[in-house]
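Q: Please design a sequence for this.
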């Protein structure tokens, strides 16, 4: 039995539920509210929702829609996308969300994580790291939906964010995203070995054994996935699923 958190990660494109492959080609997979209702029935322990268009399109978090989502969730909800100030965080928490995920703005202004963690508590502040390999096969941190290369090593970056007060690191592999070929164990080991805060591994899950590998071999504290929970079969038919509690 895998004694860890298994977290569905849903991607929003506006108010549409989509899934990407290597952060590209977002494919519409349904209505997010309907997906949440199904996950409620399956008694999912936790849910992460990320708006992948907010930062690239310079949009503020849509608090009204976030409130609608939170109102449907029977499980703790984590939200990320477009967060750039303390007011954004306050409004999102007031909407019923338990944790926020900060990605691009954490890289632009690391001190913001310190301020947010001091105000709201580290347990509610998650820093997302989108990591991919450059032309020289070295891992680097990317922001703005994978569009901007910071040139920073993800392990070094994770250390900085943990020192700033991030309570968790959400680590997503750009190269593995949506492929369902298994997690990037090398990347997970690199980051989880560098920090003492929990690391949530995401990107590449295609089988139940991938979850155990991310934890047992990679050292992740929790696992997240998107395609694994919304696609079924070789033709990637849309079917919302979740492992039995006994797994």
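A: Design:
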């Amino acid at each position: 039995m895998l004694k860890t958190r298994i977290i569905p990660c849903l991607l929003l494109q506006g108010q549409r539920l989509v899934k990407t492959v290597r952060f590209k080609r977002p494919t519409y997979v349904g209505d997010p509210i309907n997906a949440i209702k199904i996950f409620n029935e399956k008694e999912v322990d936790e849910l992460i929702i990320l708006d992948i268009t907010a930062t690239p399109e310079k949009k503020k978090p849509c608090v009204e829609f976030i409130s609608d989502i939170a109102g449907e969730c029977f499980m703790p909800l984590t939200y990320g996308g477009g967060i750039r100030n303390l007011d954004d965080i306050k409004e999102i928490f007031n909407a019923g969300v338990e944790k926020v995920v900060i990605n691009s703005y954490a890289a632009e202004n690391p001190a913001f994580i310190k301020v947010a963690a001091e105000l709201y508590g580290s347990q509610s502040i998650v820093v997302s790291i989108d990591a991919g390999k450059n032309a020289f096969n070295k891992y680097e941190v990317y922001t703005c939906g994978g569009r901007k290369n910071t040139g920073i090593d993800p392990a070094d970056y994770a250390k900085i964010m943990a020192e700033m007060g991030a309570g968790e690191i959400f680590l997503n592999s750009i190269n593995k995203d949506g492929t369902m070929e298994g997690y990037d164990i090398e990347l997970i080991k690199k980051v989880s070995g560098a920090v003492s805060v929990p690391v949530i591994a995401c990107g590449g899950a295609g089988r139940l054994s991938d979850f155990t590998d991310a934890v047992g071999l990679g050292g992740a504290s929790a696992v997240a996935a998107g395609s694994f929970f919304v696609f079924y079969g070789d033709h990637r038919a849309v079917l919302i699923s979740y492992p039995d509690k006994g797994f």
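Q: Thanks. Anything notable?
A: The radius of gyration is 16 Å. The mean pLDDT is 93.
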